[in-house]
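subagent[fold] <- orchestrator: predict structure for attached chain, return tokens only, no commentary.
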Amino acid sequence: MSSCGDRAMRKFVVGMSHSVVLRGPWADVKYKRDVSVSDARGHYIPLTGSTGGRNTDLRSKTGCINVSTPPQTLNLLLIRRHRRSQKTMISEEIDPVSQAERLLHALQDSHTRLELDVLKHLEGTASAILAFARSGINSYAPINTLPAEVLGIVFQHFLPSEGRGFRFSGYEEPRMAEEVRSRTTLTHVCRRWRLVALDMATLWTVIDEFCHDSSSAFLARSGDMSLQVYVKQTLCRDAGRTLIPHGSRIRDLHLSIPRERRSVVPSTAPEFPFEAENLERLCIVTDARPFDESRPNIDLDMSPVLFPGPTPRLKMLILRGMCWLPVIPYSTLTHLHITQGTPVSLVTLLAFLGRCTALEELILVDIYIGRASGVPLDHAVALPHLRMLVLGINQSHLSMRRLLQYLLLPAAVTLRVNGVYAFRALSDLRPFPKLPFTSGLDTLSIDHTIGRLVIRASGPSSMLLLDFKEYPIASHDHAIHLMKSLIPFDSIVDLRYRSHTLHARLAVHLLADEPMPSLAKLSFVDVGDVPIVTEALAERRDAYVHAISAALERSPNLQELQLWSADAEFPSRLALRASAPSLRTLVFHRSGKSDAVSDLDTLRGQAKDAQMCSCLECEPPMTIPGVDPVHHIYEWRS
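subagent[fold] -> orchestrator:
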């Protein structure tokens, strides 16, 4: 207590009522004769009792406070006594369990029928108490002991695509109802989850502009974060009005055009009222029948303006089923994906691609080139920064193969050709253009099964994937011509080949009878026999083995051979001592019921280092890392 307080405690004024009035900090406390102290709130603090086993009587025998008691001691004793009395009052008068039990017993013992209003009031009170209790119980759950930052990570994994937003590919409509519902659900679990979720601005950056209620709430909760926006146009409203104050935050924009407007080319006035100066990815799709010739053809001179201002940061453009191209800065695009749409002439398409000088990834799926003539043979479109070119050909008469004649691909590029009609399209390309990037290929995989052919190749900086969904073996002459045009057989070091006994003399025809002087390792997978006429089985098998042996003879520097087969005699049939005299290592991966008769000594007679193991221990290495796409951007047509 301060010195001022000490002086005040020493100034006692004893009145006729035998009370003591203190001045200073304790001026609002009145010491009464009934051995208690009354504070300003009407609570009485007894001045007698025991504390720590010692007598704490502060009164003299006359009923007045003993003035010899030090003021500091008096102050501490009063405060302690007051606190104990407060705790006792709370425990006795506000104990929630006791009150709840007394109320329940009173209601159960009552024989009086309560009024309806009273019962409804009790029901509301009970519901509030139950919600309070459940909230308290949830606070003890293990997940609610996590920090808000960790709980936010859990929320992200709960969302579709783990919180990365809707899938931005163009081949399917985003599931916006699922995106909105999953985020709203998090706010309905408990109070803490709701508070944490509402405090996470990144959780609310997916905007469905078509749904006004959710978009308004999400825009408010997202703060200043970048937005991924879905806009669905209709005939009865102007899209994008709610986005005007938030245009600078839009990074991804998915525009869905209804069937009723699929043939309408927007006017030169801006299609949307909001700015998009920070837009990075734009996807425009419409639901239309592919190659509908009743719609307008794509015309570069009829390109509509979408936004009032420029979009200098736009890097990715995805178009599906469109009959027009938007006005955007094509020279800054790095990713361009176009599929289906109305017919476009080869001259127009090449002129359009010529504007995209910064392209790194170009994906064209089922582009209908309506007129392929009129382009000089020496015309070329350079794409010096291109890292990947994907051609998806699933329809006939598209003429997409012509693009390979006029596109200048850099040395470090990946070319993928996919589709049901891909083989037929490339087979008709005569003469086949020279593709300089293929000269660096040194690893080759040929996966030839019945009716399908997959060719993979890679080099230090380039890759090739030809995924032919349909390959009629009767067209093997076209396939041989294609392989000679694409594959530098004299540079192949590592070869993987899967074939079938049914192919007989065409077992390895895709090697085009070319010499392979650099080949050091061959992995061959023998698929085995199929139900065929018994009389022809031996003849087919002999032709099959002879074709493989001939390929080995054209590889004078072969060091390692790995075989997968269910035929235990398959290594012996190849006569490796004669067909591959340079062979040092032979690994036979056994499979089938005939494994028991495999003889390791026989294998050692074929090569110096012979090994035998189960095919389950090692899968055939038909894939080449980096060649196959991890995510098929065009899988909706594959």
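orchestrator: received. Logging for downstream: The two ends are 86 Å apart (CA to CA). The first helix runs from residue 3 to 9.
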